[in-house]
Amino acid sequence: MEEGNDLEDDDEPIRRGGKRSSEPRPVTYVYSFFHLIFALASMYSAMLLTGWGNANVEEKDIIDVGWPSVWVRMCTQWITAALYVWSLVAPNIFPDRDFS
């Protein structure tokens, strides 16, 4: 790598103001934004599974009718909700593990 090149190599320390720093920059997380996006994604997947957006579909075009379809949707929603709750609870249950 040339000395005049401003591109950073993965093996070189980060440059700040012409100086090299061996400390990486801290990453700031906004946990409320993460949980908002995760909740919206869960609601969107639930909406897709229950067919909320299909109001203009005629009955002859409906494929998923009956109890097996209901149970598949319900189980999928429960699994999605359980994964979301686990993502909130797991760091408190296992404090020594790294969940990042």
Description:
This protein is mainly alpha-helical. It has a domain at 28-53 and 61-93. 47% of the residues lie in helices and 6% in strands. The chain is built from two helices and two strands, in the order E-E-H-H. It has helices at residues 31-50, 67-93; strands at 14-16, 19-21. Strands 1-2 form a two-stranded antiparallel ribbon. Helix 1 (31-50) runs antiparallel to helix 2. The chain is elongated. The model has no long low-confidence stretch (mean pLDDT 75).
Q: In terms of topology, how is this protein built?
A:
Layout: E1 14-16, E2 19-21, H1 31-50, H2 67-93
Antiparallel strand pairs: 1-2
Helix pairs in contact: 1-2
Number of helices: 2
What is the percentage of strand-forming residues? 5-15%
Give the low-pLDDT segments: none
The whole-number mean of residue pLDDT values reads 75
Strand order of the largest sheet: 1-2
Tally of DSSP β-strands: 2
Largest sheet: 2 strands, antiparallel
Shape type: elongated
What is the C-alpha radius of gyration, as a whole number of Å? 24 Å
Task: List the secondary-structure elements in sequence, H or E.
Answer: EEHH
How far is it from the N-terminal to the C-terminal residue, by CA? 32 Å
Structural class: mainly alpha
Helix content: 40-55%
